[in-house]
Specification:
- By secondary structure, the chain is an alpha+beta fold.
- The protein has 14 helices and 23 strands.
- The strands form five sheets. A six-stranded antiparallel sheet has the order 12-13-14-15-18-23, covered by helices on one side. It has a five-stranded antiparallel sheet with strand order 2-1-5-4-3.
- Helix 5 packs parallel to helix 9.
- The longest helix has 38 residues.
- The protein is elongated and about 130 Å long.
């Protein structure tokens, strides 16, 4: 054999190319036939001067065989990869199963790739290449891409839930089956209890999630250590603890391996993640790194959800303290209220109402509107309500009570450097033994109330006055109204009369439309009347922007009782006695 035999073949690595004449013959019948090389002479040496120089620089090892399958030459690379192959012996005698067809095979712990190329005179040449390192690098690259893709999906899905329970369920569900066959998350104890979530792989690969509660003293020792910030993933008894806790469904201690990693939180771990799977998928260093990276993302998601929960609880508590409180039940009066803040998402605003019982059996009631909207206005209303709650114990006469409130408001505004003011109606309801009410009301720049008589007619109450919190000695108007049983006094904020809507969307609802809306509603109980006012106002708005809306209705009940159903109203009329004080 000469170097021409090798040069006439293509090794596949680009070092040798098929002559153009041969390539032309492959595609053209008219091309002249290439003369076949002379067969190897029996006594001709393979060690021609140019042969070692050619094959020693090839990436692949070469094994040349004659027509009978006898090995005629083995290159140095082939000798290192296939030490069993001996020149002068049959190739089949070497017992290498991979040298029967093109493909990859494992030999002496290395991954080899072999391909057979025919030569002249029925000879052949086996090209053998060691692809272990390239396959290892490819596998590592694929594994890293898979880990990166997994963590990217995890980061996206864990960023959505803002509720701790949903975030915890997502943490264990996403861990199965990539990280574990069973994943358990234990949150840091809160209020003396530690909640846990578990996801277990099922036959259809869709993990099932359940949860439970444990006392801190009942937590496995490894979990407690993890909650303290340690990583006890190397302890031998970790699996036994998980089995004793009843967390490893379908996995026995002898056939499982487990790891525990803490989930980073703000000041302390937000929780602990336990992952477990069968021992044939042992957690190597790369797996532990992946679990740790997953724990970092899970900890961030849980911390965000827990922080959102804490902030929501604080917000709900503060809002609950600022939302108008329903009037206290009192003899002889039925209360009805409606409230709709301008910012519905906050549930609080600048309108307020309420009542307090007096020692003599009467009730102090009030409805007002402060300057501004939103949280700042709601805080101001909270201050006013607290002042009224304190002041009504020392002064129950509406006019004097409103002046005391004005002085307190001026003092607070000067101390805080903020100019705040309010409009308000404050009144006292005194029930009659035979039924009915006497209402004494004082006005501080607020809209005058309406009285719904037993005949169905509506009378405005002539009540006026100056804003509260503007000047030291405001003019306060006072009026006394007598209600017979079944008659109602209606207080409302400017969010009702100034609601803009209608056909063009910019027309105010106005007092006249309000009067028409409640005319003839004398049989309505107070809660239904307040709800009607709110409903007709919202219908006028047609979902448009609006100011805070507040309604307070007082209905006189017969014989000092508080009715809980509709009843007939006697046809009576009473007088209104206005007066003003300063």
């Amino acid at each position: 054999m000469t170097a021409a035999d090798v040069r006439g073949s293509d090794s596949g690595d680009g070092r040798f190319s098929t002559p153009s004449a041969v390539r032309a013959g492959m595609f053209s019948d008219a091309a002249p036939a290439r003369p076949a090389p002379s067969p190897l002479a029996a006594g001709r040496s393979l060690a021609a001067p140019d042969w070692p120089e050619v094959v020693e620089h090839l990436r692949e090892g070469l094994v040349v065989c004659d027509a009978r399958g006898v090995v005629r030459h083995v290159s140095p690379v082939a000798e290192r990869l296939l030490p069993e192959v001996t020149p002068g012996e049959l190739l089949a005698a070497a017992g290498i199963a991979g040298l029967t067809a093109d493909g990859e095979f494992t030999h002496h712990g290395r991954r080899l790739r072999a391909r057979r190329m025919p030569l002249s005179a029925a000879h052949c040449c086996w090209y053998v290449e060691d692809v272990t390192e390239s396959l290892t690098r490819a596998d590592a690259l694929l594994a890293e891409r898979a880990r990166s893709a997994f963590l990217a999906v995890v980061g996206e899905k864990l960023g959505n839930p803002l509720h701790p329970d949903r975030a915890a369920a997502a943490v264990v569900r996403l861990a199965v089956p990539t990280l574990a066959e069973v994943a358990v998350l234990v949150l840091a104890p809160r209020s003396g209890r530690a909640r846990w979530w578990r996801a277990a792989r099922t036959d259809d690969d869709a993990p099932t999630v359940d949860s439970g509660v444990l006392l801190p003293a009942d937590l496995p020792a490894a979990i407690s250590e993890g909650l303290d910030g340690a990583e006890p993933y190397a302890v031998d008894w970790l699996v036994e603890q998980a089995v004793e806790a009843g967390w490893l469904n379908g996995l026995a201690a002898a056939e499982a391996c487990a790891r525990v990693v803490p989930l980073p939180g703000r000041d302390a771990p937000a929780g602990v993640l336990l992952v477990a799977r069968r021992v044939d998928r042992w957690y190597d260093e790369a797996d532990v790194d992946l679990v740790s990276a997953y724990a970092v993302r899970a900890g961030a998601a849980l911390t965000t959800a827990l922080l959102h929960r804490d902030q929501a609880e604080v917000t709900d508590t503060l809002q609950a303290s600022l939302v108008p409180v329903e009037p206290a039940e009192a003899a002889g009066v039925q209360w009805g209220t409606a409230y709709r803040p301008a910012q519905a998402g906050l549930r609080i605003g600048g309108d307020f109402y309420g009542s307090h019982r007096l020692a003599d059996g009467g009730s102090v009631f009030f409805l007002g509107d402060v300057s501004g909207k939103g949280v700042e206005a709601a805080v101001f209303t909270g201050q006013l309500r607290q002042c009224l709650q304190a002041l009504h114990r020392v002064e129950s006469q509406p006019g004097r009570l409103l002046r005391l409130l004005n002085d307190a408001l001026l003092e607070t505004s000067q101390a805080q450097g903020q100019g705040r003011f309010a409009t308000m109606v404050v009144g006292v309801a005194q029930p009659h033994r035979e039924g009915g009410l006497t209402l004494t009301m004082a006005g501080g720049g607020h809209l005058p109330p309406l009285v719904l008589r037993g005949s169905g007619e509506v009378e405005p109450v002539p009540l006026s006055g100056m804003l509260v919190g503007v000047v030291p000695d405001p003019r306060i108007g006072e009026v006394t109204v007598r209600l017979r049983a079944g008659e109602t006094c209606l207080l409302y904020s400017d969010g009702v009369t100034e609601a803009r809507g209608g056909r063009r969307g910019d027309e105010q609802f106005g007092t006249e439309r309000l009067v028409r809306a409640v005319t003839g509603c004398q049989r309505m109980p107070a809660p239904a009347l307040a709800e009607r006012v709110e409903q007709v106002t919202c219908d006028w708005l047609a979902h448009g922007d609006h100011d805070d809306i507040a309604v307070l209705a007082l209905r006189a009940t017969p014989g000092g009782r508080t009715p809980r159903h509709l009843h007939a109203v006697p046809d009576t009329t009473v007088s209104v006695e206005p007066r003003g004080t300063r």
